[in-house]
Design a protein that fits this description.
265 residues, Rossmann fold, six-stranded mixed β-sheet, four-stranded antiparallel β-sheet, nucleotide-binding, ATP binding, binds adenosine-5'-triphosphate, alpha/beta, single chain, 12 strands, globular, 32% helix, ATP-binding, translocase
């Protein structure tokens, strides 16, 4: 197992956000975290990345305790791509991506030709070579997502954590990310990805973890977790779930929402 988060509990002030959450991902596996807005998906991903430290539980990546590891060691184990990457410094895309190599360099060591080759390969893989010289502050939201993914790749982590990586992407780039994630899993990375688009989740992921109110309500293959009853309880919608005749993956069509005391129509 590469990622092992067990019994994770986390509070922000007086609010309990995660309750005894278990999530694991092995090498070569793509695990999707799905669930309604505010369920705790991003918080869980940030906890796995060591950005926030849980109040309870234990998180290890390739055996390294995330809460105790030194940043450089942690950066060789995992890379986190946040939903809205902040890029406010005056870097070119290439130089920004190269920053990911620092996980592998000594403290005052400059990047060399091999590092530059990693950056070139990552830019190509993600399909953004054309704007390698652009200033990152000028990029669109979707372009920033792709640049952040390229930077994560040059880190050569054991685990890749992606927070809604396709939320700002057009159809073609969504597909490209889906294929990239599958390719990375084939190279034995463990991938954990937060996704709202359930059809995309079904195509991209080997396993889905459904998070509701900070608790795991289901964990299993997409065929099991994308179940109309489970989705009704989680999202308060009536839906039809059926396999796509084209891809074979489950597709979810939400038909109507069910009014609840907190969710009036
Ligand atoms: N620093 C904080 N202080 C108080 N509450 C917080 C804090 N950070 C997150 N929360 C709350 O924790 C809950 C979970 O947030 P989180 O961003 O993890 O949800 P999410 O499942 O990723 O949601 P979304 O799908 O809308 O992105 C939300 O209700 C959010 O308002």
């Amino acid at each position: 197992m590469i990622v092992n988060a067990s019994n994770v509990g986390l509070r922000q002030g007086a609010t309990r956000i995660l309750h005894a959450v278990d999530v694991a991902a092995s090498a070569g596996e793509v695990v999707g975290i799905i669930g309604p807005n505010g369920a705790g998906k991003s918080t869980l991903l940030r906890a796995i990345a060591g950005v926030v430290i849980p109040d309870e539980g234990e998180i290890t990546i390739a055996g390294v305790d995330v809460a105790r590891a030194r940043p450089r060691l942690l950066a060789r184990q995992l890379a986190l791509v946040e939903q809205h990457p902040v890029m406010q410094f005056d870097f070119s895309v290439r130089d920004y991506v190269l920053l990911g190599r620092h996980a592998h360099l000594g403290r005052f060591q400059a990047e060399g030709a091999a590092d530059a080759a990693h950056a070139t390969a990552a830019l190509e893989k993600v399909g953004i070579s054309a704007f390698a010289s652009r200033n990152v502050t000028t990029l669109s939201g979707g372009e920033r997502q792709l640049v952040a993914i390229a930077r994560a790749l040059v880190q050569q982590p054991r685990a890749l954590l992606l927070d809604e990586p396709t939320s700002a992407l057009d159809l073609s780039h969504q597909l490209r990310v889906l294929e990239l994630v599958r390719d990375l899993a084939a190279e034995q990375l463990a991938v954990i990805v937060v996704v709202h688009d359930l059809d995309l989740a079904a195509r991209m992921c080997d396993r889905l973890v459904l998070l509701v109110d900070g608790r795991v309500s289901a964990d299993g293959p997409p065929e099991k977790v994308l179940d109309a009853d489970l989705l009704r309880d989680a999202y308060h919608v009536h839906s039809v779930v059926r396999p796509s005749p084209d891809t074979g993956a489950q597709t979810v069509t939400a038909l109507r929402h069910i009014p609840t005391p907190n969710n009036k129509s």
